[in-house]
Every structure is written in structure tokens, then in C-alpha cells.
């Protein structure tokens, strides 16, 4: 690393539009309904590139492969007549899991959170410290902001010791993808959002400096932000403190692009886990003020809209979702286990199977649908159903047949959820 020039050619890869959204579609049936939301947004001047994301973990739990997502996305694009860019994300891959995504995907999220804090060769960490100090000094006034980054030697040394091994691992995964696809055929994201502790803006600058030195043309970066990002429910934390951190991170990216030669379309990726409504406004304000881009990665909450649609359809659909609820209660611990760090379910707040059996479709939908103003909304039920998608996977053809039989009502729920609760609230018109 010591011999690497400060600015190296980082122009490889595919660029993204200013705004993009990671859309989960666990069962691969909702692409047309999702694209209908994005098409409606474009008519309002909000241009957002869809990126289908499905992690290795989700594929394993459902029993699908990346080729299945590729087929579903391509078919949806064809059937919807979508004429704009779209991508397929190998979400949260490492060196061991990237192989099966190499052919199907053109967006790779290099997850190096597990390498944070691992020892790196002393020369590599030292070279990173020297580079940061040479390029940025001991204090950096953030462009367009009143915030100042503390880059004193002790801080930079601690950050380099923590993140140098993670950046080196990102380099190894990146080069594996290049060896298979060539340098120009994909978008690179680097994620550290599943780390144990949030990254400060100063640490983000150190990480970007290390990624540039590795020659990675990173286009989106997903730090761990302050606060809790539980799956499918709202942000837990102080939205104003989040806004200040997000704004500082946007400024750090501007500084990194200008100084390190990283791609001009580099932007933050927020791995939201879906539905972080209380920070959508603050994020939107920063996007409007700074002109920055954003990748919003959502979880597979499209599956929950399928459940809402089946509940509202009554009859067999409603009977099926009540059956799923009974099973979810019985198998709660097993279903929640892989998601233990990103859900907070209070078992005492879960309605019993007997209670739910008396509900009609609108009552079930009201408990599940994420409308915090609705007195029937129950975030505990919502989180448990979110992780219960395996039960629908186990029901297999029966579940898919119900989706087909109730296509119009399910599609409507998927489209309005994505458009009205997410896209219109977080992305400004260009
Ligand atoms: Zn993530």
C-alpha cells in the first residue's frame, strides 16, 4: 500500500442514477407491482433505479438461487415495459459466498463487517495512517457544514487498526469479481452496517481512503449509523442526531471524491431494514440541501404486503394467513433466531391464535400494515410475520397459487406501499 499513488484510476464499473432503491422480493412474484410504483414516481419527476436484492441468507432460507431472482427481475422488466436501468444485488456477500452470485448479479455488496477489528499487517495500517494524514491533515472542516472531523494521529491510528483488515478483505472480494466479470460490468457497494458499533464520519473517511488505495471503484457505501434499524419497523433513536451524522457522512463522501478520485456518483447506502419513517424526512432534507444521491436498501417487506393482500382478499387467503400466524407463534424462537440482533419482539404483545381467528381481513391488515397512527397496528406481530416468510416457503405451491388467485389486490398493496410510504417520502423530485 505504501507505494500506491494518492489518486489511482477508479473509473471502472457501472454508475448508478442519483437515486436507487434496493427492493426485496422474497418469492419473486411482485416485480411488476414494484415497477408500477417506480414508473408512477418517474411520472412525478422522481427517478429511482430498482435494485433487486436478496442475500445469501434469504436464498438459503427460501431455497432459491440468484438465477431465480435474475429470471424474475428480467421477466418483470419485460412484462412491465420498464425502459430504465435496473440491477441485481448480491447482497452481503463475502469471499466464500460470492461465487454463486457471479453470473446472475451486476451489483455486489461486499460485506466486510466480520473483518472489522481483525489484525492487519502493521505496515498496511501505518501506510493508511500516513496517507490519511498527508491528504487530510489533523482537522478537516467538512464542506458545506459546520462540523469538523477530528483526524488527530491517535484517532486515525485507532481507525486504521480497526478497519485496515476489512478494507483489504473488500479488495480480495472485489478482485475475485473482476476476475470473473471484468472490471466494467458491475456496481460495487461496500457494507459495514452489520458491525457491532456505529462508524463515525472520521472513521468513514479512513475506510474510504483504504478502499481507494485497494483500487475499488466503490459507488455506494453502507456504514452502520447510530440508532437501531430493526426489520420492518421504525427507527429507534434520535432522528435529529441521525440527521447530523448523515449530513456529516454526505460531506465526507464529497471530500473523498474530490481528494481520492473515487467515482463522482459515490453515495451513501442506508440499509434500512425497511420502514424507517421517522428518518425519511431528515434524509430527504439533506438530499435536497446537498444534492447528494442515495441508495435505500429495504428488507423483504414486500412479503408482508402479500400477507396484507391475502388477508384483505378474505376466504382462503385470510384462512391461510391465520394459519401462518398460528405456526409463527408455535415456531417463534426458531424463526427469530437468525434475526436476533435486528428484531425486538415482546411475546406478551403477540395476539393469540384464538384471538386472531376471530379477526376479519381488514382487522388482520390493520394489525400488520405499518401505519403508526392506526390503533390496531402491532409492531410485534409485524416483526414476527416479517421473519415468518419461511412458513410461506414451506407451504410452497399452495402459497404461490393463492398469490396468483388474488393477484390484483396483492399487487395493489405492494405498489401503494412502495410508492406512498417509501419513495414519495424519502426521495425528492429532481
Ligand atoms: Zn445490511
Structural overview:
The protein is an alpha/beta fold. The protein has two domains: 216 residues, TIM Barrel (Alpha-Beta Barrel), CATH 3.20.20; 117 residues, no CATH class. It is 51% helix and 11% strand. Strands 1-2-3-4-7-8-9-10 form an eight-stranded parallel barrel, surrounded by five helices. Strands 5-6 form a two-stranded antiparallel sheet. Helix 7 links the parallel strand 8 and strand 9. Helix 4 crosses helix 5 and helix 5 packs across helix 6. It starts with 18 loop residues before the first strand and ends with a helix.
Oligomer: single chain
Rg calculated over all Cα atoms: 22 Å
Query: So what's the CATH class of the largest domain?
Result: Alpha Beta
What count of domains describes the coordinates?
2
CATH architecture level-2 label of the largest domain:
Alpha-Beta Barrel
Order of helices and strands: EHEHHEEHEEHEHEHEHEHHHHHHHHH
Which stretches are poorly predicted, pLDDT < 50 over at least 5 residues?
Answer: none
As laid out across the biggest beta sheet, the strand order is 1-2-3-4-7-8-9-10
Amino acid at each position: 500500500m505504501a507505494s500506491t499513488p494518492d489518486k489511482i484510476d477508479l473509473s471502472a464499473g457501472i454508475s448508478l442514477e442519483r437515486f436507487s432503491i434496493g427492493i426485496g422480493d422474497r418469492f419473486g412474484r411482485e416485480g411488476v407491482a414494484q415497477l408500477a410504483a417506480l414508473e408512477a414516481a418517474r411520472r412525478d419527476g422522481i427517478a429511482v433505479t430498482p435494485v433487486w436484492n436478496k442475500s445469501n441468507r434469504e436464498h438459503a432460507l427460501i431455497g432459491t438461487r440468484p438465477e431465480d431472482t435474475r429470471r424474475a427481475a428480467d421477466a418483470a422488466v419485460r412484462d412491465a415495459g420498464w425502459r430504465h436501468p435496473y440491477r441485481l444485488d448480491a447482497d452481503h456477500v463475502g469471499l466464500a459466498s460470492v461465487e454463486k452470485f457471479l453470473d446472475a448479479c451486476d451489483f455486489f455488496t461486499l460485506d466486510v463487517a466480520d473483518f472489522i477489528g481483525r489484525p492487519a499487517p502493521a505496515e498496511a495500517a501505518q501506510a493508511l495512517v500516513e496517507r490519511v494524514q498527508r491528504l487530510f491533515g489533523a482537522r478537516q472542516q467538512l464542506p458545506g457544514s459546520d462540523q469538523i472531523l477530528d483526524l488527530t494521529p491517535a484517532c486515525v491510528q485507532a481507525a486504521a487498526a480497526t478497519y485496515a483488515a476489512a478494507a483489504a478483505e473488500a479488495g480480495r472480494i472485489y478482485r475475485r469479481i473482476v476476475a470473473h466479470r471484468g472490471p466494467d460490468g458491475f456496481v460495487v457497494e461496500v457494507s459495514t452496517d452489520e458491525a457491532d458499533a456505529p462508524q463515525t464520519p472520521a472513521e468513514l473517511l479512513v475506510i474510504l481512503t483504504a478502499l481507494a488505495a485497494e483500487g475499488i471503484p466503490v459507488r455506494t457505501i453502507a456504514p452502520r449509523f447510530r440508532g437501531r434499524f430493526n426489520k420492518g419497523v421504525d427507527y429507534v433513536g434520535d432522528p435529529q442526531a441521525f440527521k447530523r451524522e448523515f449530513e456529516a457522512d454526505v460531506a465526507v463522501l464529497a471530500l473523498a471524491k474530490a481528494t481520492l478520485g473515487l467515482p463522482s456518483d459515490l453515495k451513501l447506502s442506508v440499509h434500512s431494514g425497511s420502514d424507517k419513517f421517522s428518518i425519511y424526512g431528515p434524509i430527504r432534507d439533506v438530499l435536497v440541501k446537498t444534492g447528494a444521491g442515495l441508495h435505500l436498501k429495504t428488507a423483504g417487506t414486500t412479503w408482508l404486503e402479500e400477507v396484507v393482500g391475502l388477508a384483505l382478499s378474505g376466504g382462503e387467503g385470510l384462512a391461510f394467513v391465520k394459519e401462518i400466524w398460528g405456526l409463527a407463534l408455535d415456531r417463534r424462537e426458531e424463526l427469530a433466531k437468525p434475526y436476533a440482533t435486528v428484531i425486538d419482539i415482546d411475546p406478551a404483545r403477540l395476539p393469540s391464535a384464538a384471538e386472531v381467528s376471530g379477526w376479519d381481513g381488514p382487522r388482520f391488515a390493520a394489525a400488520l400494515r405499518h401505519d403508526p397512527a392506526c390503533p390496531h397496528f402491532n409492531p410485534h406481530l409485524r416483526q414476527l410475520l416479517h421473519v415468518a416468510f419461511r412458513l410461506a416457503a414451506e407451504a410452497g405451491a399452495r402459497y404461490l397459487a393463492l398469490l396468483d388467485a388474488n393477484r390484483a389486490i396483492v399487487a395493489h398493496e405492494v405498489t401503494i406501499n412502495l410508492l406512498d410510504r417509501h419513495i414519495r417520502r424519502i426521495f425528492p423530485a429532481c
